[in-house]
Amino acid sequence: MYSFKDGTLFHQLAQKGALNRFIVEDLADTIANCHNIATVNKKKDFGGSRGIALIIKNNAKLLKQSFSDVIELEKIDALFSLLSHYLSCVSDLLDNRRDSGQVRLCNGDLLLSSISVTDGRPSLFNPNNTSSIIDVLYDMSYLLMDFKQRDYSRFASLFFNRYFDITGEGERGLCGLRVLNLFISIRAASWALEHLIQSENLNDKQQLEQCIEEAKKSIELALKILQPQKQILIAIGGLSGSGKSKLAREMAPHLGNARVVRSDSTRKRLAGVSLNQRLNFDGYSAEMTERTFKVLFDEVAFGLQCGYPVIADAVFSNPGHRSEIAEIARNQGAPFIGIWLEATSKNKFERIKSRKRDVSDADAWVLGLQMKYELGRIDWVKVDSNVSSDEILTTALKLIDN
Q1: Are 13 and 19 in contact (CB under 8 A)?
Q2: 0.85 cut: is pTM over it?
Q3: Whole-angstrom Cα distance, residue 121 to residue 332?
């Protein structure tokens, strides 16, 4: 039997405004580590397209047979028609993920109500004392769905991007972006079904109405997540301390399910270290930098190909890199906005000094080197970042609106 101090569960912390970026990033780190060390399923009778098809079929059958008087039949048909079509497009990818070891022994019940903060760190538990042999992304998608269902879009974005930064699920090889929305939609449909089943045993009118409304909201989320997003590529450049990563992080939720591809995170993933671990000089060699940008560019292109809005976060001091990121957008037929953040030397140095738990290793010495770079002609939109982060975000969002 699990016992936790009252008020320490994630949904309780969120309700009282006690969740923050660092706790959510720690949560993504914890889950990514659990998935990394989880036992790999070596049998083909778990996971893959067959397992997902069975979940879709069973959910559709139960909703139609038992709850078409609560959820409109046309809406149920529309949802499961979309899910079936989506599944037919990614069946081979799901089987490839299973065969390459992405189906593992997972928690299976990752919800905000089943995660606590103990001694300042996230602690996972499963109230049913069971585990599930499922795709690791299907496991994390339950929590991502829960963030979205509760309208915590900022935390959903932080969790999604941190998990993908650590695991490399955004890279072309794993194809995580191809299947993620399918998983979220299925999880939302299952969540709706669970609430409808619960409603059958409720006598309290208010509780009954809340349960049904939650189910209806989940069906809407399941439908919405499968709709095409507005494609756009936003590149944010500037010297260290100019506010690139903060702007990218805060802008992402305003674009929907945006993928933020950050050079600092990509570099550390390629180096095989945790995102908060400092790299030595070899990690910043010219060869490693070119390798980092090669992977970053490919992940950006793949994100656009998968229909996601993408934000690329890097210094972009090299004119060639600025040209290449813009070319990716042209090749994918996506609108492109290049934003160059400019701040005074004093502000950049002060921001670097005050950083806490930042992925970037840049310090005052690195910034000093950057200030000597030949940046060439910068034809991106220059934004004054000496003002507050809210003002910078407002300016950047206006650029998108225009």
Answers
A1: yes
A2: yes
A3: 41
- Smallest CA-to-CA distance from 341 within 244, 233, 235 is with 244
Say which residues have a Cβ less than 8 Å from residue 168's Cβ, sequence separation at least 6.
174, 269
Short-list 122, 105, 104, 106, CA closest to 114: 122
Predicted pLDDT of residue 369: 86
Structure-token match 């912390």, residue found: 13
Give the Cα separation of 39 and 41 in Å (integer): 6
CA distances from 187 to 148, 181, 373 (A): 11, 10, 49
Nearest-5° Cα angle at 105, 99 to 110: 120
Q: Contacts by 176-181 with C-beta closer than 8 Å and gap 24+? A: 176/137, 177/259, 177/302, 177/303, 177/306, 177/308, 178/90, 178/93, 178/306, 179/90, 179/93, 179/94, 179/97, 179/135, 179/137, 180/137, 180/141, 180/144, 181/86, 181/225, 181/226, 181/257
> According to the model, what pLDDT value does residue 127 have?
62
Q: What mean pLDDT is predicted for residues 107-118?
A: 93
How many Å is the Cα radius of gyration of the chain?
22
Average of pLDDT values for 181-187? Answer: 98
Task: List, for residues 193-236, the tens digit of each pLDDT value.
Answer: 999 999 988 888 899 999 999 999 999 999 999 999 999 999 99
With 50 as the cut, is the pLDDT of residue 141 above it?
yes
Mean of the pLDDT values across residues 272-280? Answer: 94
Q: Quick check: 131 pLDDT over 90?
A: no
Beta bridge partners of 132: 106
